[in-house]
């Protein structure tokens, strides 16, 4: 599996020995790990092996760049049932290789074992290039909240796949969600419009804005994270860490046309499509957009969308529970992802 991974200047010793040796040009190493579990994070009926390879790298390197770092290397824990076709592992590996080519950083090692459940555990490393890490605790009253990348598309893609599963083959307008669910390998489903195909693709292969992480650090971001569980929920981590509140302006969320199309297919009435799309932008996880907080005087490049402001945390009364994220000053049901929720 390892022979096809290219080396980079950061790799002093690559796969093949008991451990790898990776350069840390800055003297510090950013390190993070994320798991992908079949049935929980992906389904082999919904995503090809290549998709899962892309996604495994993307969700890990999104965390690296969310610290303001440059990806340097990763290690892949691969636990697979014995009946997994070799071709699946090979295609997965090709997906990993191709996403690494986009994000930078080399595969430097891993481990392969048998397991009842197909599980991929990646550890990713990064270099801060002399910058301070952008943590969750630096947001200050008066700062602005901005995001870059996609929001809501992955959740819409997932909803399309779930719906196709529930009603396989049901035609939806021009498109059959059943066909969308049945199409594999990241191919555009037969009959799907571009918008639906884009949502499915963002779910299968999220496209984190890798370069924007180090960019935000250089611009002076005071806090940053990648959106994995939902924007409102994830910004809640910034609020708690920084001891602040964040208020988001719903009108600042301009839904992508692909998202508007998907919510229509998912059943939102025409007059409610923008509201439904905004709800997905606020609560949908797994796009791995970057959300960051900047001092108000920072001039942001236009791919950063300003969507909110940082305010003082409410007082210490029973009502306050310390810190929170509101939308148009209202507390909303955030709808974000909780691995341990019992439905
Ligand atoms: N089992 C664990 N052991 C040690 N630390 C953990 C464990 N699980 C989570 N953490 C730490 O808790 C913090 C939050 O973890 P979490 O997985 O929620 O990260 P996240 O960045 O919010 O989400 P994502 O990884 O999906 O982007 C991280 O610093 C992580 O390293
Ligand atoms: C088959 C299937 N069912 C549900 C979901 C949705 N989902 C799973 S984990 C997660 C949040 C991020 O996880 P983490 O915090 O572990 O990175 C979300 C939104 C999916 N992707 N696939
Ligand atoms: Mg994260």
From TrEMBL:
A molecular-function term among this protein's GO annotations: thiamine-phosphate kinase activity
Keyword Hydrolase part of the UniProt annotation: no
EC number(s) stated in the UniProt entry for this protein: 2.7.4.16
Ranges of residues in domain PurM-like N-terminal: 16-126
Coiled coil regions in record: none
Gene3D superfamilies documented for this protein: PurM-like C-terminal domain, PurM-like, N-terminal domain
Keywords attached to this entry: ATP-binding, Kinase, Magnesium, Metal-binding, Nucleotide-binding, Thiamine biosynthesis, Transferase
Record: residues binding Mg(2+) 4: 18, 32, 63
Superkingdom of the organism of origin: Bacteria
Membership in a protein family: Belongs to the thiamine-monophosphate kinase family.
Other facts: Reaction mechanism of ThiL seems to utilize a direct, inline transfer of the gamma-phosphate of ATP to TMP rather than a phosphorylated enzyme intermediate.
Name of the protein this chain belongs to: Thiamine-monophosphate kinase
């Amino acid at each position: 599996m390892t022979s096809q991974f290219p080396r980079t200047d950061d790799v002093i010793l690559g796969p093949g020995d008991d451990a790898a040796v990776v350069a840390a040009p800055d003297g510090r190493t950013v390190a993070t790990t994320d798991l992908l579990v079949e049935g929980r994070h992906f389904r082999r009926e919904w995503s090809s092996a290549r998709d899962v390879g892309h996604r495994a790298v993307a969700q890990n390197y999104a965390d690296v760049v969310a610290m303001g770092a440059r990806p340097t290397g990763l290690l892949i824990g691969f636990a697979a049932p014995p009946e997994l076709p070799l071709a699946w592992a090979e295609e997965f590996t090709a997906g990993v290789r191709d996403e690494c080519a986009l994000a930078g950083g080399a595969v430097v090692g891993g481990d392969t074992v048998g397991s009842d459940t197909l599980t991929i555990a990646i550890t990713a490393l990064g270099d801060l290039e002399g910058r301070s890490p952008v943590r969750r605790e630096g947001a200050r009253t008066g700062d602005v909240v901005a995001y870059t990348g996609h929001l809501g598309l992955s959740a819409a893609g997932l909803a399309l796949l779930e719906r196709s599963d529930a009603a396989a083959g049901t035609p939806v307008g021009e498109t059959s969600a059943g066909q969308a669910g049945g199409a594999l390998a990241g191919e555009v489903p037969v009959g799907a419009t571009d918008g639906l195909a884009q949502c499915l693709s963002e779910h299968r292969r999220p496209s984190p804005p890798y370069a924007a992480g180090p960019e935000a650090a250089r611009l002076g971001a005071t806090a940053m994270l990648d959106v994995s569980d939902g924007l409102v929920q994830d910004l809640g981590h910034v609020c708690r860490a920084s001891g602040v509140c964040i208020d988001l302006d719903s009108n600042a969320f301009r839904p992508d046309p692909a998202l508007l199309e998907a919510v229509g297919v998912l059943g939102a009435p025409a007059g409610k499509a923008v509201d439904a799309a905004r709800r997905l932008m606020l609560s949908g996880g797994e796009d791995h957009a970057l959300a960051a907080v900047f001092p108000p005087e920072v001039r942001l490049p236009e791919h950063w969308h300003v969507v909110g402001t940082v305010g003082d945390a409410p007082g210490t009364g029973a009502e306050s529970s310390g810190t929170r994220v509101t939308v148009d000053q209202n507390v909303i049901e955030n709808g974000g992802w909780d691995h341990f929720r019992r439905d």
